[in-house]
From TrEMBL:
Protein name: ABC transporter ATP-binding protein
Keywords per UniProt: ATP-binding, Nucleotide-binding, Transport
SUPFAM superfamilies: P-loop containing nucleoside triphosphate hydrolases (SSF52540)
Parts of the chain that traverse the membrane: none
Keyword Nucleotide-binding: yes
Lineage, broadest ranks: Bacteria, Bacillati, Actinomycetota, Actinomycetes, Micrococcales
Sample GO molecular function, one term: ATP binding
CDD domains the record matches: ABC_NikE_OppD_transporters (cd03257)
Domain ABC transporter: from-to ranges: 7-246
InterPro entries: AAA+_ATPase, ABC_transp_ATP-bind, ABC_transporter-like_ATP-bd, ABC_transporter-like_CS, P-loop_NTPase
GO biological process, one term: transmembrane transport
Family, as annotated: Belongs to the ABC transporter superfamily.
A Pfam family reported for this protein in Swiss-Prot or TrEMBL: ABC_tran
Length: 270
């Protein structure tokens, strides 16, 4: 395996607005993600997690700092040059409806942007839908025919269609019933073990982020205050802010017995 990291984020700063209305959402953040690794991003609401994900996806510009994908500086590319990397870096967002067009059949949505010259695309689509546990014929239906959990699995299949190397998962199970959260998380893990892709896994639920991540980075008001192996960050946080955050998150981490039980039974989290 190459020594070049999959993603390097170097001194990233992202401001929204300008002049007196300027607001610094991400302040001098640096981290790396290795090939096949999952880095979890934890932090309170408004700490800048989604903005980091959006900067990696090229959806918001970096005010300063650099982002590299396998050694290529994405932040130095034109919009056109950047688009060429779009198939390598994909996203799964909290709300699958943001990526599924309600008046488009699932099959057409999944094939969108995949070149016709890719002879395997239809086979890949059918195999992904089946791997996501969706019924035969899903591709001929519209999003309204499916439950929230099924729609999120379709959104994951869509993200995987271009065989990306990195997927930014921004709160991918937050909107789902606790009973289907573990199923969706396990599908994400299964795809990773089959393909070797890396994840930036954004979340505010500490159990979910720990379940998914090898390392966890903690953000406080746009600044990265701690980054280390997931169990160390959760069990022995070295920074006072992380200690407080983890204690507060653990105190509210069991919203539903079903989800907590299913996560721990699947992975031995305890
Ligand atoms: N489009 C925008 N314009 C202006 N400010 C924004 C915009 N998007 C986010 N912000 C602000 O930037 C800061 C970081 O927001 P961001 O959504 O990245 O945080 P987050 O940690 O992902 O929060 P949450 O967990 O609530 O999604 C917040 O103060 C937010 O209000």
């Amino acid at each position: 395996m190459s020594d070049v990291p999959l993603i390097v984020v170097e001194n990233l700063v992202v401001d929204y607005g300008s002049g007196a209305r300027r607001h610094r959402a991400v302040d001098d953040v640096s981290f790396e993600i290795a090939e096949g690794e999952t880095l979890g991003l934890l932090g309170e609401s408004g700490s800048g997690k989604s903005t980091i994900g959006r900067a990696i996806l090229g959806l918001v510009p970096a005010t300063s700092g650099r982002i590299f994908f396998r050694g290529t500086e994405l932040t130095a590319l034109s919009a056109r040059g950047r688009r060429a990397f779009g198939s390598h870096i994909r996203a799964v967002f909290q709300d699958p409806n943001s990526t599924l067009n309600p008046v488009r059949r699932i099959g057409a949505t999944l094939l969108e942007g995949i070149p016709r010259s890719d002879a395997a695309r239809t086979g890949r689509m059918l195999s992904l839908l089946s791997r996501m546990g969706l019924p035969a014929g899903t591709e001929d239906n519209f999003p309204a025919a499916f439950s929230g959990g099924q729609r999120q699995r379709i959104a994951i299949a869509r993200a995987m269609m271009s065989q990306p190397s990195l997927v930014v998962c921004d709160e991918p199970v937050t909107a789902l019933d606790v009973s289907v959260q573990a199923q969706v998380l396990n599908l994400l893990r299964e795809v990773q073990s089959n393909t070797g892709l890396g994840y930036l896994f954004i979340g505010h639920d500490i159990e979910v982020v720990r379940y998914m991540s090898e390392r966890i980075a903690v953000l406080e008001k746009g600044r990265l205050v701690e980054c280390g192996p997931a169990d160390d960050v959760v069990r022995n946080p070295s920074q006072p802010y992380t200690q407080q955050l983890v204690a507060a998150m653990l105190a509210t981490a069991h919203p539903g017995v079903g989800r907590a039980e299913s996560l721990s039974s699947l992975h031995g989290v305890g």
